[in-house]
Design goal:
Blueprint: H1 2-34, E1 36-49, H2 51-54, E2 67-72, E3 77-85, H3 88-91, E4 100-103, E5 110-117, E6 122-129, E7 139-142, E8 146-153, E9 163-164, E10 176-179, E11 187-194, E12 199-209, E13 213-219, E14 227-235, E15 238-244, E16 250-256, E17 259-261, E18 271-277, E19 283-295, E20 298-311, E21 316-325, E22 328-332, E23 335-340, E24 343-346, E25 371-373, E26 379-381, E27 422-423, H4 427-434, E28 437-442, E29 455-460, E30 467-471, E31 475-479, E32 485-490, E33 496-503, E34 509-514, E35 519-523, E36 534-535, E37 540-541
Parallel strand pairs: 1-12, 13-21
Antiparallel strand pairs: 1-4, 1-7, 2-3, 3-21, 5-6, 5-8, 8-11, 9-10, 10-15, 11-12, 13-18, 14-17, 14-19, 15-16, 19-20, 22-23, 23-24, 25-26, 25-36, 27-37, 28-29, 29-30, 31-32, 33-34, 34-35
Length: 543
């Protein structure tokens, strides 16, 4: 009896084993797809976008959105103001860089993560503190589902305002936060992700700034005096904003007034810097005002360095105000120089003895400087040379041969032929010069290999006693293609060609060019010969 019952029981178990095994396997497979998905949050980067990217234009090294203005502080000093976006494609001579200004999110910054279904229904919300993410309750979602993740931060160490509306009626389309501090930043990201069950899913947050930001530096180094007091404002600016969490777009709220530029304790120095987040829509009427500034014993009021700035959301700008002595002749680094609109220019071309009267009339051969091929230290010839010797038939120098920095912040290299304390100018510095002078001719502007009698005279618009005289030396030109053939002197007496430190893949080089009628900044286009022809150099002081 016992044996019969045992055998019956065994038969029942054996009969159900395949079914039990099948159920177990199916349950395991299902759990792998539909189990709990744990979300692990990680901050990757925080970035400002380049102005050209936002405007949907191709960012090139020849394009410039730098805005400038010069005004008198008093009879002795000028305010030279420059605003430019922090754009690697614009300010760096490396076109492989992405058009983003990227940093890390600082410790203790608060940020919020909101989760929605594909249909836009609200699922969950978590607040995090940078560096303390483990203190926030874990976020668990359904494996195998696709969600929309929205991350937002004001870049502050205090809690974010509450999300509205209430959870019961909240959707992706109507979610928003109302911010009552107009000077806060706004950083945002939205991404879709299909999560895996029974696994940790890493969510990489890459914040992008949504508001324009302005880094404002005032530099009085050239005066020798400290900035001891300042009151500055930016307008238009609103005291609050409403942020649409479905897109990161924001609309202004609260009062429409100026915002103060607060330097805090960063004062009583010759260089002071602060950053301001501007709560305004894209516009071209942003105004930066110096209501009052004290430098040494000088106090000036009611200055407006910029009244019609172009400001774009999501872009960080550098506003630099240099307080410089008015245009004047001076001795700089032991050499005769002229300060024009804040830039110190040598009064002689490279290769000319500094004891020679730089501005005497008529122009003479002893004020004609040396010729140089682009990017090289060795001169191609003296001021009276008719052929290049030595002559390099290849356009081999790298684009950063004369400037290892940027157009905005140039750094002299060991291949720069300028004397100690000076460097080759940037294209922007030639533009500043052209816009700060009246232009006249000295001599007949007649071409010939022995015509050393013509020059361009650039006279300061602020001080008629201050001028630069640039000989019309022509250039030592070439023919053919690489390896090029030295042709020798051309356009002597009628044209002046002056190198800048700019080098790129396209255009190859930039240079300043003048004839009897014009003074312009030009470029070599795609013609590689422009790195082989020999031009002159007029240096600027390193300040």
């Amino acid at each position: 009896m016992k044996n019969s019952l045992l055998k019956f029981t065994q038969n029942i178990i054996y009969a159900f084993l395949p079914l039990l095994f099948t159920v177990s396997c199916n349950k395991s497979d299902s759990a792998g797809m539909e189990g709990t998905a744990t979300i692990q949050v990680a901050i990757s980067d925080v970035s400002f976008e380049a102005e050209e990217t936002i405007a949907n234009r191709a960012a090139t090294t020849t394009e410039t959105t730098i805005q400038r203005n010069t005004m008198e502080l008093n009879k002795d000093f000028l305010v030279v103001a420059e605003l430019h976006p922090e754009n690697p494609n614009l300010l760096k001579q490396d076109q492989s860089k992405a058009a983003l200004d990227t940093t890390d999110l600082a410790a203790d910054i608060h940020y919020r993560l909101l989760v929605y279904t594909q249909a836009g229904a609200f699922v969950a919300e978590r607040d995090y503190i940078r560096g303390q993410e483990a203190a926030t309750a874990a976020l668990a979602l359904d494996g195998g589902s696709t969600y929309t993740f929205v991350a937002v931060s004001l870049n502050q160490t205090t809690a974010l305002p509450a999300t509205t509306p209430a959870v019961a009626t909240r959707t992706l389309a109507n979610s928003q936060i109302v911010v009552n501090t107009g000077t806060s930043a706004l950083m945002y990201q939205r991404q879709a992700l299909t999560v895996s069950g029974n696994a940790i899913n890493r969510l990489d947050i890459v914040f992008k700034h949504q508001k324009p930001s302005m880094n404002i530096t005032i530099n009085s180094t050239q005066t020798g005096y400290n900035i001891t007091a300042i009151a500055a404002t930016i307008t238009p600016h609103n005291s609050g904003m409403t942020v649409n969490l479905s897109s990161g777009a924001f609309t202004q709220s609260g009062s429409n007034a100026s915002t103060s530029v607060n330097y805090g304790t960063n004062i009583n120095s010759q260089i002071i810097t602060t950053e301001v987040n501007i709560n305004a829509a894209n516009n071209n009427i942003t105004r930066f005002s110096l209501n009052s500034i004290t430098i040494g014993s000088i106090t000036a009021t009611n200055l407006a360095p910029f009244t019609n700035l172009n400001v774009t959301a999501g872009v960080r700008y550098n506003l630099i105000l240099n307080i410089v002595p008015n245009d004047q002749f001076l001795t700089y680094q032991g050499r005769p120089a002229a300060r024009i609109n804040g830039v110190i220019w040598a009064r002689h071309n490279v290769g000319v003895a500094t004891t020679v009267n730089a501005d005497a009339a008529p122009m003479t051969v002893n004020r004609h400087g040396d010729y140089f091929q682009w990017g090289r230290l060795a001169r191609s010839g003296a001021g009276n040379s008719n052929t290049a010797n030595p002559f390099f038939a290849s356009n081999a120098p790298a684009n950063n041969s004369w400037n290892s920095g940027t157009e905005a912040a140039p750094i002299k290299t060991t291949l720069d032929p300028c004397p100690t304390g000076y460097r080759i100018p940037t294209r922007a510095e030639y533009t500043i010069l052209r816009n700060s002078v009246t232009i006249s001719n000295l001599g007949p502007f007649t071409e010939g290999a022995t015509r050393f009698d013509s020059a361009k005279v650039l006279t300061s618009t602020r001080n008629s006693q201050v001028r630069l005289t640039l000989p019309a030396q022509g250039w030592l030109t070439v023919s053919g293609s690489a390896p090029y053939v030295d042709v020798g002197i051309a356009n002597r007496g009628t044209v002046g060609y002056y190198h800048t430190s700019f080098g790129s893949n396209n255009p190859l080089t930039m240079y300043s060019f003048f004839n009897a009628a014009n003074l312009v900044e030009s470029n070599g286009g795609t013609n590689a010969a422009f790195k082989v022809v020999s031009m002159n150099i007029r240096c600027v002081g390193i300040q």
